[in-house]
Amino acid sequence: MSDKRKGYISWDEYFMGVAKLSAMRSKDPNTQVGCCIVSEDNKILSMGYNGFPKGCSDDEFPWSRDDGDPYNEKYFYVTHSELNAILNYRGGSLEGSKLYVTLFPCNECAKAIIQAGIKTLVYESDKYADTPSTKASKRMLNAAGVRYYQYNATGRKIEYYV
Q1: Predicted TM-score of the model (pTM)
Q2: Secondary structure string (H, E, C) spanning 37-82
Q3: Which of 71, 72, 82, 94 has the fewest beta carbons closer than 10 A?
Q4: pLDDT digits (tens, 9 = 90+) for 111-159
Protein backbone atom coordinates (compact mmCIF):
# COMPACT_ATOMS: atom_id res chain seq x y z
CA MET A 1 0.00 0.00 0.00
CA SER A 2 1.35 3.44 -0.87
CA ASP A 3 1.38 6.56 1.31
CA LYS A 4 -1.15 9.30 0.76
CA ARG A 5 -0.28 12.25 -1.43
CA LYS A 6 1.60 15.08 0.22
CA GLY A 7 1.08 18.79 -0.49
CA TYR A 8 -2.71 18.80 -0.59
CA ILE A 9 -4.38 22.06 0.46
CA SER A 10 -5.65 22.72 3.99
CA TRP A 11 -9.31 23.32 4.83
CA ASP A 12 -8.56 27.04 5.24
CA GLU A 13 -6.91 27.17 1.80
CA TYR A 14 -9.82 25.28 0.28
CA PHE A 15 -12.61 27.39 1.74
CA MET A 16 -10.81 30.72 1.31
CA GLY A 17 -10.27 29.63 -2.31
CA VAL A 18 -14.03 29.13 -2.65
CA ALA A 19 -14.60 32.60 -1.14
CA LYS A 20 -12.11 34.11 -3.59
CA LEU A 21 -13.78 32.33 -6.50
CA SER A 22 -17.16 33.65 -5.32
CA ALA A 23 -15.72 37.18 -5.24
CA MET A 24 -14.99 36.84 -8.94
CA ARG A 25 -18.79 36.87 -9.57
CA SER A 26 -19.06 40.44 -8.23
CA LYS A 27 -19.65 43.16 -10.82
CA ASP A 28 -18.34 45.86 -8.48
CA PRO A 29 -15.54 47.63 -10.37
CA ASN A 30 -13.69 48.59 -7.17
CA THR A 31 -14.07 45.92 -4.51
CA GLN A 32 -14.97 42.28 -5.10
CA VAL A 33 -15.72 40.36 -1.90
CA GLY A 34 -16.61 36.68 -1.58
CA CYS A 35 -17.82 34.51 1.27
CA CYS A 36 -18.16 30.80 2.00
CA ILE A 37 -19.97 29.35 5.04
CA VAL A 38 -19.11 25.82 6.18
CA SER A 39 -20.44 23.41 8.76
CA GLU A 40 -18.50 22.14 11.75
CA ASP A 41 -17.68 19.00 9.72
CA ASN A 42 -16.28 20.99 6.76
CA LYS A 43 -19.24 20.85 4.39
CA ILE A 44 -20.03 23.93 2.30
CA LEU A 45 -23.39 25.35 3.36
CA SER A 46 -23.60 28.58 1.38
CA MET A 47 -21.68 31.16 -0.63
CA GLY A 48 -22.14 34.79 -1.56
CA TYR A 49 -20.55 37.83 -3.15
CA ASN A 50 -21.22 41.56 -3.07
CA GLY A 51 -23.85 42.76 -5.52
CA PHE A 52 -27.30 44.22 -5.90
CA PRO A 53 -30.43 42.48 -4.58
CA LYS A 54 -32.51 40.26 -6.86
CA GLY A 55 -34.50 42.35 -9.31
CA CYS A 56 -32.15 45.35 -9.08
CA SER A 57 -30.30 45.43 -12.38
CA ASP A 58 -26.53 45.80 -12.16
CA ASP A 59 -26.80 47.77 -15.42
CA GLU A 60 -29.29 50.27 -13.98
CA PHE A 61 -28.12 50.77 -10.39
CA PRO A 62 -24.97 52.81 -9.73
CA TRP A 63 -21.52 51.36 -9.07
CA SER A 64 -19.99 54.75 -8.26
CA ARG A 65 -18.53 55.32 -4.83
CA ASP A 66 -17.89 59.07 -4.87
CA ASP A 67 -20.53 60.72 -7.07
CA GLY A 68 -21.39 63.36 -4.47
CA ASP A 69 -25.05 62.33 -4.56
CA PRO A 70 -25.58 59.33 -2.24
CA TYR A 71 -28.48 58.10 -4.40
CA ASN A 72 -26.03 57.71 -7.28
CA GLU A 73 -23.49 55.75 -5.24
CA LYS A 74 -23.46 52.00 -4.63
CA TYR A 75 -23.59 52.08 -0.82
CA PHE A 76 -27.38 52.26 -0.42
CA TYR A 77 -27.88 49.37 -2.83
CA VAL A 78 -25.13 46.73 -2.59
CA THR A 79 -25.68 43.64 -0.46
CA HIS A 80 -22.41 42.45 1.09
CA SER A 81 -21.11 38.94 0.47
CA GLU A 82 -21.60 37.81 4.08
CA LEU A 83 -25.25 38.83 4.16
CA ASN A 84 -25.81 37.27 0.73
CA ALA A 85 -24.29 33.99 1.94
CA ILE A 86 -26.46 34.01 5.09
CA LEU A 87 -29.60 34.81 3.08
CA ASN A 88 -28.72 32.26 0.36
CA TYR A 89 -28.64 29.40 2.88
CA ARG A 90 -31.76 27.25 2.58
CA GLY A 91 -30.95 24.48 5.06
CA GLY A 92 -32.18 25.82 8.40
CA SER A 93 -29.75 26.95 11.08
CA LEU A 94 -26.19 28.19 10.61
CA GLU A 95 -25.55 27.72 14.35
CA GLY A 96 -21.92 26.76 15.04
CA SER A 97 -20.74 27.25 11.46
CA LYS A 98 -17.59 28.95 10.17
CA LEU A 99 -17.55 31.85 7.72
CA TYR A 100 -14.68 32.55 5.30
CA VAL A 101 -14.62 36.02 3.76
CA THR A 102 -12.09 37.93 1.67
CA LEU A 103 -12.62 41.26 3.52
CA PHE A 104 -13.28 41.75 7.24
CA PRO A 105 -17.03 42.29 7.78
CA CYS A 106 -18.61 45.68 8.37
CA ASN A 107 -20.72 46.30 11.47
CA GLU A 108 -23.99 45.45 9.68
CA CYS A 109 -22.65 42.10 8.48
CA ALA A 110 -21.21 41.42 11.95
CA LYS A 111 -24.74 41.76 13.35
CA ALA A 112 -26.06 39.23 10.83
CA ILE A 113 -23.14 36.85 11.53
CA ILE A 114 -23.83 36.98 15.27
CA GLN A 115 -27.60 36.60 14.87
CA ALA A 116 -27.13 33.61 12.51
CA GLY A 117 -25.13 31.80 15.20
CA ILE A 118 -21.89 31.64 13.21
CA LYS A 119 -19.11 30.92 15.70
CA THR A 120 -15.88 31.39 13.71
CA LEU A 121 -14.85 33.96 11.12
CA VAL A 122 -11.80 33.63 8.89
CA TYR A 123 -10.91 36.74 6.89
CA GLU A 124 -8.25 37.47 4.31
CA SER A 125 -7.93 41.27 4.33
CA ASP A 126 -8.53 43.79 7.10
CA LYS A 127 -7.76 46.88 5.03
CA TYR A 128 -10.42 48.95 6.82
CA ALA A 129 -9.25 47.96 10.33
CA ASP A 130 -9.05 51.58 11.51
CA THR A 131 -12.57 52.55 10.43
CA PRO A 132 -15.40 52.97 12.95
CA SER A 133 -17.40 50.25 11.14
CA THR A 134 -14.69 47.60 11.52
CA LYS A 135 -13.92 48.63 15.10
CA ALA A 136 -17.62 48.29 15.94
CA SER A 137 -17.65 44.87 14.21
CA LYS A 138 -14.79 43.61 16.35
CA ARG A 139 -16.39 44.97 19.50
CA MET A 140 -19.64 43.12 18.77
CA LEU A 141 -17.93 39.91 17.63
CA ASN A 142 -15.81 39.89 20.79
CA ALA A 143 -18.83 40.50 23.03
CA ALA A 144 -20.80 37.74 21.30
CA GLY A 145 -17.94 35.23 21.54
CA VAL A 146 -17.40 34.90 17.80
CA ARG A 147 -13.81 33.80 17.24
CA TYR A 148 -12.04 35.43 14.30
CA TYR A 149 -8.61 35.14 12.79
CA GLN A 150 -6.80 36.21 9.67
CA TYR A 151 -6.25 33.63 6.96
CA ASN A 152 -2.60 32.64 6.92
CA ALA A 153 -1.66 32.29 3.27
CA THR A 154 0.99 29.67 2.69
CA GLY A 155 2.43 31.47 -0.32
CA ARG A 156 1.65 28.40 -2.40
CA LYS A 157 0.25 29.21 -5.84
CA ILE A 158 -3.00 27.37 -6.36
CA GLU A 159 -4.15 27.22 -9.95
CA TYR A 160 -7.40 26.01 -11.43
CA TYR A 161 -8.28 25.64 -15.05
CA VAL A 162 -11.43 26.65 -16.84
Answers
A1: 0.93
A2: EECCCCCEEEEEECECCCCCCCCCCCCCCCCCCHHHCHHHCCECHH
A3: 71
A4: 999 999 999 999 999 999 999 999 999 999 999 999 999 999 888 777 7
Tell me if 82 sits within 8 A of 113, measured CB to CB: yes
User: Pairing mode, if any, of strands 147-150 and 98-103?
Assistant: unpaired
CB-based burial, 133-156: b 16+ in 10 Å, e otherwise = ebeebbebbeeeebebeebeeeee
Cα angle for residues 105, 113, 16 (degrees, 5° grid): 60
Q: Hey, which residues are catalytic here?
A: 82
CB 104, CB 131: distance < 8 Å: no
Cα-Cα-Cα-Cα torsion 49, 154, 30, 82, nearest 10 degrees, comes to: 30
> Which residues touch 141 (CB under 8 Å, ≥6 apart)?
110, 113, 114, 121, 148
Phi-psi region of 42 (alpha: psi -120 to 50; beta: other; left: phi over 0): left
